[in-house]
Amino acid sequence: MNQVIRIFFKLIRILLTPFMYLWEFASTPNGLVRAPDEQAKINQQSQHLVLYQFKTCPFCIKVRREINRLSLPIELRDAQKNSQHRQALLKGGGQIKVPCLRIKNEHGKEIWLYESAEINQYLHSRFAYS
Question: Out of 47, 60, 75, 85, which residue is the most buried by the measure of CB atoms under 10 Å away?
């Protein structure tokens, strides 16, 4: 019975994946346009951010849309298909839960921020009006 349930949910994921990609493509907003020197500053600040995510997770799509809207070049790491990224997420953040934004501050300390709404709020408060 347990195997049947796993196969059922795997089939659902396979069937929904193309629709998730299409939804992300259709709903992603245009990015902010900043002055070149201002965008360079944002790019430098974004180098210390990494998003651990699954490609078809609706909450990850929500965060990627905000990243695109704010024109942030944040590194995306697939914790579903890449075992090294998955292990880094588990070791650093303490759990395999996505989306997760790793924030490395100027002192080298890492902060692992979970929950799409909290991540989007952090990104918006830090980068929206720069």
Answer: 60
